[in-house]
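Input structure tokens:
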């Protein structure tokens, strides 16, 4: 299959690109498109065969449900059975935006593979002009996971999508680099108080300002069979080819780690804030200013992907503080490293 990438940058291209994307989706094909978080790979959420093509293109396990994207908030009442007051308050406060709400679905409204057989569904309205235009023109809900091969970091540019899925999907709408760079916050509103299943751009503090108590489970333990969870969080994620090790942002610890790695005749890529730029690192990827976690989030996946273009045997990444968006970065890094820390 030939993969076409259409740049959506001026009015002429735009109309053509959206028309083509809508035609493809209506014909039961998948289309990649930008959102404010990461690129998504979409199919009409009521079309089981089209949704199956998402799982196939990504190599995604079928027990991992998809997020359904809407163009307008009023559409969701046709698909979910009751919307608790706290969910309504969050919809008002954060949509369009990087918040996915887990709600009870009405029976038989989505293709069964969208929800992986669950009675609940994740829904959101993305805050990106290309996504919104596409969704509104189509007028139907679109199931879309991140547009990467399963296990790889989510794509923050159309070129990342092309790299992973070229030859596997017919069309990519290229709207440039995404803004936030990490996937949406996923919150389960089928329980009270609501539970954060995946941290993201909408932080725990932002949520509690609107609805009071929210439960933030220890994300490292979210895979416990006993914890309510986003099924996807148990799989390998966000990982470059070389093994990732976490390290505290501490000069001495980094010095020692680099020395040890070199003593083992290995090459290392270091991802760290500017302050930790290191002459001994074989490759250095800046996570920006240590105080600015939005900037780190925006850069992170592109850098993890760029490690695959190096000959690094080991990827060493400093962790941020777990506050604000830092909590989401920390969570993704723990997954990328499979929980491994560099121990000197
Ligand atoms: O920002 C985002 O959320 C991006 C863009 C494209 O919207 N999408 C995204 O989708 O990250 P995906 O499929 O890569 O991640 C969806 C996460 C998974 O961890 C999945 O297990 C969880 O949401 N999820 C989906 N439906 C769920 C449900 N009914 N109950 C619990 N978790 C659910
Ligand atoms: Mg994903």
């Amino acid at each position: 299959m030939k993969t076409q990438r259409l740049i959506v940058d001026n009015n002429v291209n735009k109309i053509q690109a959206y028309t083509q994307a809508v035609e493809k989706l209506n014909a039961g094909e998948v289309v990649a498109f930008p959102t404010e978080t990461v690129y998504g790979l979409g199919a009409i959420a009521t079309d089981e065969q089209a949704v199956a093509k998402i799982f196939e293109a990504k190599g995604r396990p079928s027990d991992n449900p998809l997020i359904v994207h809407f163009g307008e908030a009023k559409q969701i009442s046709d698909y979910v059975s009751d919307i608790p007051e706290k969910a309504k308050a969050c919809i008002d406060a954060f949509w369009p935006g990087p918040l996915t709400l887990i709600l009870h679905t009405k029976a038989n409204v989505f293709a069964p593979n969208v929800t992986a057989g669950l009675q609940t569904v994740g829904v959101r309205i993305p805050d990106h002009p290309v996504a919104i235009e596409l969704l509104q023109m189509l007028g139907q809900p679109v199931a879309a996971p991140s547009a990467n091969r399963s296990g790889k970091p989510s794509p923050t540019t159309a070129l990342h999508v092309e790299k992973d899925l070229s030859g596997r999907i017919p069309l990519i709408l290229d709207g440039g680099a995404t803004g936030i760079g990490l996937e949406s916050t996923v919150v389960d509103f089928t329980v009270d108080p609501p539970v954060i299943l995946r941290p993201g751009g909408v932080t725990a503090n932002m949520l509690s300002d609107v609805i009071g108590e929210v439960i933030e489970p220890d994300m490292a333990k979210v895979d416990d069979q006993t914890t309510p969870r986003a099924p996807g969080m148990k799989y390998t994620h966000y990982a470059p080819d070389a093994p990732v090790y976490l390290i505290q942002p501490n000069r001495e610890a980094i010095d020692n780690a680099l020395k040890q790695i070199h003593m083992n005749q290995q090459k290392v890529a270091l991802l760290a804030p500017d302050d930790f730029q290191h002459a001994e690192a074989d490759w250095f990827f800046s996570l920006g200013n240590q105080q600015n976690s939005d900037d780190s989030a925006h850069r992170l996946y592109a850098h993890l992907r760029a490690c695959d273009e190096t000959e690094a045997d080991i990827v060493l990444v400093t962790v941020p503080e777990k506050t604000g968006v830092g909590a989401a970065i920390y969570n993704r890094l723990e997954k990328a490293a499979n929980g491994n820390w560099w121990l000197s």
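The chain has ten helices and 14 strands. Residues 222-228 have pLDDT under 50 and may be disordered.
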